[in-house]
Amino acid sequence: MPASAPVPISRRRGFTTSELMVAVVIMGFVAAGIGSFLRQMSLMYYSDRARILISKDMRKFTTKLDDDAVTANYFCIYPGFSSRSVTVGSVTSDAAVADGEVGDLLVLVYTDPASTGSGTSMINRLVGYYREITNSTLNTGPVHRFDVTISPAVAASSNPMYVILNTYVTGTAASYPTIEEISQGLELNNALSTTTPALFYNRQNRSVLVSAQVSEIQAEAGTNTQTGNTYNFTVSPRG
Questions:
Q1: Which residues contact 66 (CB under 8 A, 6 or more apart)?
Q2: Confidence at 221, pLDDT banded by 50, 70, 90
Q3: Where exactly are the structural domains of the chain?
């Protein structure tokens, strides 16, 4: 059988312009799909990493707060670090919140087991947790902690608590160590119909409800992604 004559190069069929355009469009869709998939995987990775960091920070926070609270004798909650007193006319009084009210400053009070001859409790230590609101629009900011020793101890009945606080807890809200970077208070004041949510809730003057959304910002692909988790827990001084 005679061999077929080869097709001249000039007569071989190539891709038409339309076929090339279709191929380019298809490749574009495939590339876009792969890019979107990789983007979603990246977001999931950074989100999971942020949640792990949040959980780690919260474990440290709750453990420390619980350890402090269990050895405290009682607590006071104030509206904020700088809101320790209220003045009406010429009369200044303590601004500690009542049962069912909320605030962003929790003060744990420790008294000396040894008392004076009259049986007066002597305060020898104050530990405080408070939220510094740095973004009033979002109601967010870092949580700080102070731990001050009062020596010599002062009688609990000799001065209002805000006077003792003003004497031993000085400086600005940013003066004390930060234990949590971003926190949003979620507790509402039962005594008021409208109020800004705070971090600490006074439950019957016996225990403290802590309710917050804690967030972590991760730098991802040139942008900042914020991830948050909500936490609720209760601490109770020994009394």
A1: 235
A2: low
A3: 29-235
